[in-house]
């Protein structure tokens, strides 16, 4: 017969594993965003659409994993002390994925309309997307470290904070340049939404890191 502590540890491992899979999907979605930016810069319309379709498949997988996570929490999560922290973390990962989907849709709209954004602005946003991919990768690595060395997670979280500051710095420069441009108003508003989504994703990832810190402390 398993002791209560052993039962809780088993539940925690199961929920942590699902959470780590969520984070892996977030990284892969972020990778497809990077590839979408590259395709648009290179005017490869078919490639842009293919990467959007791959991203959408990942979003569907993310939604399926979310259901599995909620079922796991519903059936056994009441025995887990850090249940609320896991719930908040997974809801935060869901917010990140939702914002990535919204960003991808706007990118596809620009590509479908053949709007001329300007290479400078596309490359600026593409650079931020690369920083986001790095941030999501570091976030996932931090979450993975909870399985074997929770104290290491606290150290690794600092690298995510540094990348978020880089994103913020690049965002401020790009948004300033955007409003100095002579871009048509409709296009300007859509592109502003794109770079604001990039900034929002970076902030949400930092929120996720704070929740991973709480799990590291409680573990």
Helix and strand arrangement:
Layout: H1 4-41, H2 45-76, H3 83-113, H4 119-144, H5 150-180, H6 185-218
Helix pairs in contact: 1-2, 1-3, 1-4, 2-3, 3-6, 4-5, 4-6, 5-6
Describe what this molecule looks like in 3D.
This protein has 219 residues and is an all-alpha fold. The protein has a single domain, classed as Methane Monooxygenase Hydroxylase, Chain G, domain 1 (Up-down Bundle), CATH 1.20.58.220. Helices cover 88% and strands 0% of the residues. The protein has 6 helices and no strands. It has helices at residues 4-41, 45-76, 83-113, 119-144, 150-180, 185-218. Helix 1 packs antiparallel against helix 4 and helix 3 runs antiparallel to helix 6. The chain is elongated and about 65 Å long. The model has no long low-confidence stretch (mean pLDDT 90).
